[in-house]
Predict the structure.
Amino acid sequence: MQETRKTTSLQRLLNIATWLSLSIGIGAIGGACCLLTIYYVLARDLPQVSELTSIRPCEATVIYASDGERLAEVYAVRRKWVPISRIPRYLQLATVAIEDRRFYSHPGVDPRSIVRALMVNLREGRYAQGGSTITQQLARSLFLTPEKSLKRKLKEIILAIRIERAFSKQEILEMYLNQVCYGHGAYGVEVASQLYFGKHVWELNLPQCAMLAALPRRPAYYSPYEHPGACKARRDIILDKMAELGFITKEEAEEAKRTPITEGLVDLRQIGVQQVKAHYFTNFAIKELVQRFGTDMVYKGGLKVHTSLDMKLQREVERIVQNNLGRIRARGADQIAIVCLDIKSGKILAMVGGAKKFRVDRRTGKLVRDDYNRATQAPNQPGSSFKPYVYAAALEFGFKPYSIFNDSRITFVSAGGRAWSPKNYDGIYGRSMTLKRALAMSNNVIAVKLCRAIGIDRVIECARRMGFRFARDPYSASYTLALGAIDGYLIDHTAAMACAANGGNRVFPTTLDKVYDGRGRLIYQSVLRTFKALSPEVSEQLLEMLIAVVTSGTGRAATVNGYQIAGKTGTSNELRDLWFVGFSPSIACGVWVGREDNRPLRSGSGGSVCAPIFSQVMRVALKLHPGPKRFEFIALGRNDNKPTQPLEPREEFSRVNICDDSGLLATSACPSIHEEILPKDQIPRRECSLHRVDFVEVAICKLSGKLASFYCPADEIVWRRLPASSVPTEICPIHRPRNEAPETSTVEDQEQADR
């Protein structure tokens, strides 16, 4: 009986053990399944190992001038990548000592640290510690949010294990030291070293390395400027831990601890101050970069951008702007914008978008940097400087530079019954002149008549094709468009006018030369982009007309000794905007002068205010970038670029003198003439009829059309001014005494009879 009871008890124990084993096994399997399920759910949205191999924290983009001078840094966070070989061993060991002492032995996750953190959290009753390794911190900063939750912690562990499998310990430490925040906007050890100590990270000593290692945990609290005591205490703890782990000796630690925490620190006011040179140009370059590469690439990609800016020319242009402020203020203006670019490539050589570096913010009343670029952002009326587009369209339509127009008054009536008459600047009307002379004199009436003759559509299409960008609908201006009544932008206007000097090819303004990525690979190089906007014949005809503006028209003040210059003046309605846009054979330059509040100026014109500034800028630009001194006229059959070897006209061309006023063959009485080489079928057939010395006043009988005689009635006689070669030689045969004269007589006969 007793044995039976013992057997029954043993059996029961075996059954309990069996069920317990089964329960544990089932529980383990269930737990494993739960863990696998959790892992699958969490891991499916995490980056794969193949993606981790391309990990590189965002860096600042650096922008340089053409000579290598640094213009600015662009960054979302301020960081500069340095390889682990350039980071001092002291800084590496100090970071490991305070952040993750078993970094070199664990697989990405340190169970001891997790258990320790768990105990602290239970004791504190809150999430006080995370027990994260350096690898976990790197995973969190690269891919996760800083929220404190179990789900985020599990993702962090999974990512840390993956990172450890993909990278070596040194590579992980390199990424961490280049990624972590060190306070005051500094990310990465190189930027932190520059900001705190004013030197490269590889130049730091032991106490400085220990101080930097103290910052990542709580950068604001441990700032050596704001909390030097807390910073020193944590630095000293790090030095003790380094000695404890055998990274340094106790003597080295004690000596380093005696170093004041402020030793070697730069002035706090220098931290975070970003100096931008040529800020109008630089900001425009950043916009071009963003359009080409995107915001993330520009602000986080660590690009090295080499621009087209010539800093020597830029400084001279800025000096010229400041020197002319007093002169333009006397006219009532307070702003200047200037842009210089290479005609062949479109590369911008210099840019000033305003006369002041700082302005008062209207919202806050504070003094802020003036970033409003009047060369690229401000729409202003171009005034008469728009007329070259009208004349270019007219030349395409079939008119010639010597075509004659009369500037008699003309009136237009709108649909609403409002009348408008264009007015000439000099107030004189009723003159006949060539289109070339009309453009040189900036004649308003003829420009409007020309626009009406060819149609507004052609003018708008030609201007857009050449590169002029309208700020609003140009059709709303009607025929006032010919006088530049629609706003445009200085940079586009300057590049568009240069078509005339480039064989009709339009270039696109650019700031970029070469761009390298964060690893030093060339990812962009400027290539020549052109568009055939005008035919060579039309562009050269327009060029000759624009040269006349400077040689004998409203742009005389734009001349540059030794160089042939072409361009056009502009004065907008109500004297709000003054312009001169012109070019040499190699460089184009646009100058705008006006007011910040767009109120009218007291006096001045594009020729008297902007043209002299243009001349000052071009003298410097051509000294720094010497190019051809005269324009080439290949399509028109000559080359003015070789004055020492004059090109004789070919058989189908002839060299003729043309009157500037009539456009006909010049006579000895014409006050203003110029020489042209023209195709024989385009040479005027008649001599100038405006300037003749051999005109005579003669009396003509209306009935016979012959010279009036003494016997012609007074009411039948008219006086006419005729060329001597066209004066009739016969006397009126109708009015004569009977039986005294033959049916016809000559002038000699009449003279004999009179005697």
